[in-house]
Amino acid sequence: MSTADTQALELSALVLGAANTLVDGIHSGVVARGFDDLRPAHGFAFARLAPDGATVGELAEHLGVTKQAASQLVEELVGKGYVERQPHPFDARARLVVLTEQGSACTRAADAAAADVVRPWLNQLGAKRMRALRDDLAKIAARGHLRPTW
């Protein structure tokens, strides 16, 4: 294996490790803020539903699951009070899944938890290196398609 291949494997493991640290830290922070009936997968759904909602089909596509699985997830979140179904404003046949106030509060808690997780990285790397890391990741990371690995 070449040095470049070895470095690529090491980098991929480190990026995945950082992602796991972030997901685990956000989940712990959300639980600590009183939202202890959710799993990290719910947060990925909330990321798609905020701020304007989505259909079950759009949510399924975002999460990379079947419509049936997304529908079951929505049903669970409705039962817990985090989302509600509303008439779609442009399609009378569709229903829009939107966050309730409880769901929005959980999303705010997740944002605060994410900041708590990343803050030590800033302290460890320093502002200049942190900006460089953010800028480099922005060049290579896909944006807007956050989903769990099942």
UniProtKB/TrEMBL annotation:
Keywords: DNA-binding. Residues 8-142 form the HTH marR-type domain. Coiled coil: none annotated. PROSITE patterns: HTH_MARR_2 (PS50995). InterPro entries: ArsR-like_HTH, HTH_MarR-typ, MarR/SlyA-like, WH-like_DNA-bd_sf, WH_DNA-bd_sf. GO terms for molecular function: DNA binding; DNA-binding transcription factor activity. It comes from the Bacteria. SUPFAM superfamilies: Winged helix' DNA-binding domain. One of its GO terms (biological process) is response to stress. The keyword DNA-binding applies. It holds the Pfam family MarR_2. PANTHER family: MARR FAMILY REGULATORY PROTEIN (PTHR33164:SF99), TRANSCRIPTIONAL REGULATOR, MARR FAMILY (PTHR33164). This is DNA-binding MarR family transcriptional regulator. It comes from Herbihabitans rhizosphaerae.
